[in-house]
Every structure is written in structure tokens, then in C-alpha cells.
Amino acid sequence: MPMLKIDGIEIEVDQGTTVLQAAEQAGIEIPRFCYHERLSIAGNCRMCLVEVSPGPPKPAASCALPAADGMEVKTNTEKVKKFREGVMEFLLINHPLDCPICDQGGECDLQDQSMAYGIGDNRYNEKRRIVKEKKMGPLIRTIMTRCIHCTRCVRFADEVAGVPSLGAIGRGENTQITTYQEQAFQSEMSGNVVDLCPVGALTSKPYTFKARPWELKNTETIDVHDALGSNIRVDSRGRAIMRALPRVNEDVNEEWISDKTRHAVDGLGKNRLDRPYVKKNGKLQEVSWSEAFNLISKKIAGLNGNQIAGLVGDLCDAESMYAFKQMMNSLGAKIECRQDGSKIETEYRSGYLFNSGVAGIDDADAVLLVGSNPRHESPVLNARLRQRWLTRECKFANIGPEVDLSYKIEQLGDSAGILQDILDGKNNFADVLDKAKKPMIILGQGALNRMDSHGILKLVYDIVDKYSLVKDDWNGFNVLQTAASRVAALDMELVRDGGVDAIISGAEGGDIKVVYNLGADEIDSKRLKKAFVIYQGSHGDEGVRNADVILPGTAYTEKSGTYLNTEGRVQRTQQAIFGPGEAREDWTIFRALSEVIGNTLSFDDIVQLRAALIEDYPHFAILDRKPIAEWANTGTMAPLLNVGFTMAISDFYATNPIARASETMKECRNAMSNPNHAEGATGTNG
Amino acid sequence: MSIAVKDSEEFVFSPENLAWTEGQLKKYPKNRQMSCVMPFLQRAQEQNHGWVSIPIMEYIADFLDMPYIRVHEVASFYSMYNLKPVGKHVIEVCTTTPCWLRGSDDVVRACKDELGIGFGETTNDGEYTLLEVECAGACVNAPVIAYKEQYYEDLDDVSTRKFIKDLKAGVSPKPGPQNGRFKSCPMGGPTSLKDMVPNDATFGGDK
User: Fold this and answer.
1) Does residue A125 sit at the B interface (CB-CB below 8 Å)?
2) Chain B interface residues facing chain A, Cβ-Cβ under 8 Å?
3) What is the 3 state secondary structure string of B90-143?
4) What's the whole-model pTM score?
5) Which residues of B touch A142 (CB under 8 A)?
6) Which domains does chain B have, with CATH numbers?
7) Tell me, what's the ipTM?
8) For chain A, percent helix, then strand, then coil, each to nearest 5?
């Protein structure tokens, strides 16, 4: 391991570490623009120049220079100061001085570093270049005159997103960054280039001129748009969420988030339910909370538990569901959480978790997808799979329809019967699974919401056992959930016999008189018409149609709630803003309603609620750890159907009420289906 | 920089070129076929009357299994790929320092006068395109014009005008120095080390 000296500090680093990384380890900051620890090394901004001896007497780019034994690096000499001033001056030749009207202002690497390392002056008096705006789709605003050609965005598109449509065309002073033929950047993670851009060349289009970073309140919270539970920071001003940004969590989302996570936040301000409604004479009318509660109490009175059914949606937090469960239990009624028709059971935790862990993907050497399109179900997790694929150390195969995952994957076919072949050793991939040290099977919801899902599950369980996918320190059985609420709901056993279909047919047949719907919007609510439907949630979406009572709840940015991601990792959101109008946190609504019904819940505040929750489910107390669930092979074989898999998500940009309310998501959908006409010209954006 | 004309016509390599590609592909290891992008673009440009259109780039990208933008990057980086249609006769004038010192300004002026167009332009009849190029690597014979893979060297105002008039008259001008010099040998014989000149040296001309 090389031992080198940086500014007099001796440090030993791993073989292959660059001088810049070594300096970082020694606690010395070297300025940089193009270097990014999660991207390949380009070495083209030259900001990281240092003095190195032994070697030629010229500045060396520390980001691209491997640390070697006996090297002596200086970063604090007068010479280095001059190097940096020189590079800075060159970078600023063509960079416009428009910080006052630049959205990056206040959080700009170039701004900060020119303050720290620049000379504060410019000796250049020649012509400056102007570069036309490039169209990149509805999320990325471009002011390309500001671009310093670090190529971070190009490398991100190539390496992380796997959608190589960005590039640098031309050369020298005429270099321009663009998408191919100025088409929209067709990635579900395209928004990340805005974070990567060290200057204001790529900024967020929906956020254009909306706010300055110093006037925003930052709240560290968790994303609920998919079941990955990406760590995010939401920035709010007053009662509005202005934007969502990723936070680093190496075990979950690294530092990426999907476009839905980032840009569906405008849906939080639209179509909101802001006061209670009751249907009178076929029309919804605003009422007081007590009137709505009294009506519910009257309707419930005298019914037995089987005549009441509860439904929970995809975005619910554990506290709400727990309070809901307590209230429904007091009525003898049961709740169903699998609104997509998933056949998953709650008996063993390992049966519905992503047991290998998201970080476990980095160690996997064989991955079999069954009925899953991770690119839509969890784009950030898909990027991690892609990173693994790039190493060429891991074999990938897919059972299900052919999908573009942004990497090439062996297509085994679109039939559940292939699982039987693998189990019987008749498929080539059986051999791969057998030889692999850390194999993974990833089951998507597309494999779990079929009539024959019990059979599929049993087959997969048997495959897991036969090819020993579960070992001492490894569990290769994974379910990729799509709903943020699902794992917590399954932990609380919010399942009814027959699932959501039984509720719908029960409502149609008159057996179920009251349906209490907590934010379930992915069902056909018309079919609940005959029952008395109470909808409690944040958005006026599918669920409120045919609802007889509407109770306004808060969204994930407006409450502190616990969510379990697909790994079973417990994470907590923080309240960033207050809900609109009379919207209340869901658990408080249950608490208030339970009093009217006559079975007052036992907790009065969130602390007591959490204490009760943790008493019943102790694992909810352990925050941000990947749990290890005990493996069990259960279930019985059922005959397989001879039909192909249908993916759980058909439209990535409209998977939940918040995304459906978002204008930005609508624009994304249009841009993705028609890349050449990515934007409607407004006449002012030229 | 961006491609001005969107050619709707499809492009495919001619059968001869297609046969030629096979040999090119063999030069590189498996999965490194992208290395062929430059010769392929060059061939396609020749086949497509001297310029590279969007269908060409997409065809080559598909051919070599690489993203469209990567081909576009290469095609736009090198100045010898023309991204706009060019005339039948492409005249490339070098204006880099040695040529400029030796009078490329006169050559440029003569070209512009005779053709009535500026750099990067094509005459209305679609016959001539005038391009300014960086160092042609023939500084010993500066100033230089490159035309149809030949160099026309040691030019001045008069010889440049004659060169263009010859083209217009359909006469192929003789490549090489236009001032009677043989290759890059000294005009009129050696000027130094005269003692060491072999007796049978011709310097390209008469003894």
C-alpha cells in the first residue's frame, strides 16, 4: 500500500487511490469540478492541480494521478495557488457573470470556488462565446453559456442512468453539451444531472426562479413514491414544498433519487382534500368534523365486524395504519393492504422483504428477475443493479416480458413455467444459480398479483432451498415492493381473506356494508358503490369517487411518520410543512373518530402512539438498519397459468395520487412518449 | 455545430463499401467494433457526396452498436467530416501560421474573388465549397490548398486564380508546387552544402 506525504501529512492509502482521494482522507480539500466520486474520472476541468515530486516540474491533475509510494504532494504552495487562479480565470472567460439571475446562485460550486481560489478579476478582453439553450426535456433547464464542460452529466447518463443520450459535440471552444438531436433525456433519474452540475448550466426546470436556497427551510425526510425509501431533503417556503433533493444514504439510494421523487412534489399542492365532506342528496357537501364523525358512527352502529372492511393505500405511514388497525379491531373488522391484488402472505417476514438488502446487490453474482421491471418499480435500485452489471462479475436473467432496463439481460422467457425448469435443473440459469456464491432472485409485484402467485411463490421458495440461496450471511430471496406502506402493513398483518377482491365483491353483493378507505386509490372505486364508503386521504383521486364521507388527511411531507422500505428498513419522515385547510394527521383523525364511536384509542399523542406500536412490533424501534428475517419455506404448490407476466407499473409517472396530481409528471409522460417534442414553446424560454 | 439539414433519405452502405467494412471490422477485437467509427464515417461521407447526414450517423451507430450521440460526438469533433452538404469541388485553404506567413491571405482572397463565396459557403450552383482548414502539414510548401486528396502548394494570388479557373474549365490542375519547384527541394538548386551535392542530383528539374 502506497505511503505518501501530502502537505507534510504522511498517509497510507489503498492501491489505486488517487492523490485527490488520498488528500481527502488526510483531511485536505482539493477544489474540483469534474471529479465526482460516483462517476468515472475525466480529468478535464484542471481545478485539482497540485505540485508533485518526484516527477516533471509541472502541475499534475490530482484526480487522475494514482497515489504512489514515496510521493510528496503539495497543495498549499504559492505555485498551487497560481495554478488554481489560472484555471479559475480560464473557466471564467466564457462563464457569464449572471449569478443574480441564476438558479444555482447560493449553492454553486463555481461561485464558491471562485470566491475561495479565484483572483476576483479577469484580464480577458476578447470575444466571449454564447451557446444556445439546449432542449433536454421537461425537467432540465439549460443555460449552456454557463457550462464549463466538466462532463459530469454526460458520465452520469452513460454510467449511472444507462441512457447514453448526452454528449459533448464539437471541440475546443466550440464544445457543447447536448442530448442527441436535443431530444428529451429519457431516463427516470434525469433530474440528478441538475445536482451534479457544478454550475448553473443545468438547473431544474419546474423550480426555475421559484426560490433562493437561503430562504428555504430544509427538512430531512424519506421518500414514499416507491418502496425503496430514498433519503431526501425537502425544501419548503411557508406552506409550500419547493423542491426535493437527495440525501446520501449508501445503503439505500447512495445519492440519487428518481424523477418522481424529485419532481412529483408539485402534486402536493394540487387536488388536495382540505375539509371534511359528506354526500347529501348525491352531492358532496362541506361539513364539520363532528358531523362527519357522527354520520360514520351512525352507519357503523349495529354492524358486525364482517360487514365492515378497511383498505389502506400505498402511501400510508405505520402510525396511521396502527391507529386504523386499533380502531377497526375495536369494531371487530379487518383491514386489507394489498390493493394491487398481491397474494403475498404475512406469516414469515422473509417472504415479503428484499432480504439481500439494497447494498447486497453490490456483492451479488447472479440476479434473476421474475415479473419485475425495476427500472419503473424503483429506478434507483435499478441503477444499483446496473452498477453491478457493469462490473461483469454478475450474471443477469429475466423471466417476464422483455423490458429495457438500461442494461442487457438474458431473457429466459415470459412464462412462470421457466421457474419449474430451473427447479428441475433443465434451464441453463439453474447452473448459474447453483455455482453463484451470492445469487439473488428478485420477485416483482407482477409475479405476485396473479391468480397462480401461490404456485410461483412456492416454486421460488423451492429454488431458493435447492440452490441454497439462503446461507449463513446471505439471503437471496427478494421481493421488490412498489408501495411505501406495504412492508409495515404486512408486518401489522393488515390482510383479509380473499384480499381486495373479496372486499369489492362483498360490497357488490351487499355483505360488506361499510368500507373505510385510508388512501387506497389504485382500486376500482365504482365497484364499492353499494357500500357506505369513507375515504380518508390527502388527494381527490380515484378513492373519493363514490365516497360518502371524505376526511382530509396529510401527505408525507406534512407529518412525522414511520415507513419500512422494501428491505424492512425502518425510516421516519419529518414534518416540513402543515397540511392544507383542515387536513389532519391520519392517526389523529382515528383517535378523534374512535371517541365518537365509543372505543377511544389508548394514545393521546404521537409519543404514546409510537410506544404502543413498538410494544406490539418491537422492530419498529430500530431505525435505519437492514433487518435480518428468518428464512422459511412455506406455502403449497398451485397449478401455474400459461400466461405471460404483466408488470405492476404501466405508467411510471402516475403510480400514486400525488404523482397523478403533478403537472410536472404529466409533462414527463408526454416527453417520454414523444421525445422530439419535449417541450411546448412558451415564447419566453429562448 | 448542430446539423443544419435533416436528410430524410435513408442511408445504407453500397455493396462495395459493405464488403470493405468486413475487413475493417476484423482489425479490432470482438466488442471493440466501435473503433471502426472513423473510417466508416469517412467512407460514408465519400459515398454521400462529401457530407455526413443524420441518417448516416444513425446507420453507423446501429451498425457498430453504439449510441447515436457517440457517433455524433466523433463526427462533430473532427473537421474533416462535413455536417452540411458540400459542393462537388471542395477547396480547403490552410490559414495556419506558416501558410499565413507565406501569404495565405492572398490565396484566400483569390479564392473568395474567383468563387464569390466565403469560408464555409457553397456556390449557388452547388459546384464549389470553400473551407478554411487548420494546418495541412505541408508547411515547407506553404501556402497550401487541399483539393480531392491532393495538395496544391507554393501558391500565390496568380497561381490560385489559375487553379480555380482550371477547375471551372474542367481542366485538372497538376498537384504539387505551383511555382515550378520539385517537391520541397530548394528553387533553382541547393543554397547550402553545395559541395556535398552528388553530381547526378536533378532536384526534380533540369541539371
Assistant:
1) no
2) 1-2, 54, 67-70, 72-73, 76-77
3) EEEEECCHHHHHCCHHHHHHHHHHHHCCCCCEECCCCCEEEEEECCCCCHHHCC
4) 0.92
5) none
6) 15-77 (1.10.10.1590), 89-177 (3.40.30.10)
7) 0.88
8) 35, 20, 50
